[in-house]
Write a structure and sequence with these properties.
This protein is α/β, with parallel strands linked by helices. About 35% of the residues lie in helices and about 25% in strands.
Length: about 230
């Protein structure tokens, strides 16, 4: 399996950023890490290995950029308003320096995004805000209400980064073209979050696949089982 390490200075973030890329061709998929996970997390926890056959077949090419979650949602040393603003800078980085580069390389308009746990939130929020850039969303055990990270603070920026709020009022026609997968385990701590998001999508007649895996908890063994199944449908 081809693995490529990339490191560059990001003018958007004002710092060096790292990324691992797997595969030689196929549908481009950007994976967001969990919580405070790094760009190598998907490799270390064998999520990439679970999809090796599809990667080697040239059906998917996976991009694993680093995040700045430690400077945004998880940075308790700054005001909640600044946590959200830092996340918005990160999203601008993803659009300008990752997605646009992939779209230019492939000559395409849209990429796929995905992630597990907090990465599921990151992927869903990016997809729902930028459906003109995203063809597929793969969320595994994601949660979609960010307010618990903000100590009760709420403003317009929070609203527009909280999918359970803004999605209900969004009428971007590209939302109905998204291919959405919401996976969770029967004993998943994020089960209710997925059911709630599914209800929002259903109320808007947005097609999606709500996939429950029996006897499974919120952890890497579940996501390694899900990942190749979901990729095979890209």
């Amino acid at each position: 399996m081809k693995e490529e390490y990339k490191k560059w200075y990001s003018p958007t973030l004002g710092k060096d950023i790292e990324m691992l890329v797997y595969g030689h061709y196929g549908t481009p998929l950007i994976i967001f890490p969990t919580t405070l996970g790094r760009f190598f997390e998907s490799k270390d926890f064998k999520l990439i290995e679970s999809a090796q056959e599809l990667i080697d077949q040239g059906r998917v090419k996976i991009y694993c950029p680093d995040t700045i979650n430690d400077l945004s949602w998880y940075n308790k040393s700054i005001h909640p308003a600044d946590r959200v603003k830092n996340h918005m800078v990160f999203e601008q980085f993803v659009k300008d320096e990752v997605v646009d580069a992939i779209r230019h390389e492939y000559g395409i308009d849209k990429v796929a995004v995905g992630g597990a746990s907090f990465g599921g939130y990151s992927a869903a929020n990016f997809a729902f805000k930028n459906p003109h850039m995203v063809s597929h969303l793969i969320s595994m055990s994601g949660s979609f209400d960010i307010r618990s990270f903000l100590d009760g603070y709420y403003d317009d920026n929070v609203y527009f980064n909280n999918p359970v709020d803004y999605l209900q009022n969004s009428n971007d026609p590209e939302l109905w073209n998204l291919n959405i997968t919401l996976g969770y385990g029967e004993w998943d701590i994020c089960k209710d979050a997925n059911l709630a998001l599914s209800n929002i999508l259903s109320a808007k007649n947005i097609s999606h696949w709500l996939d429950e895996r029996r006897w499974a908890e919120h952890d890497w063994p579940l996501w390694r089982m899900m990942f190749p199944d979901y990729l095979s449908k890209l």
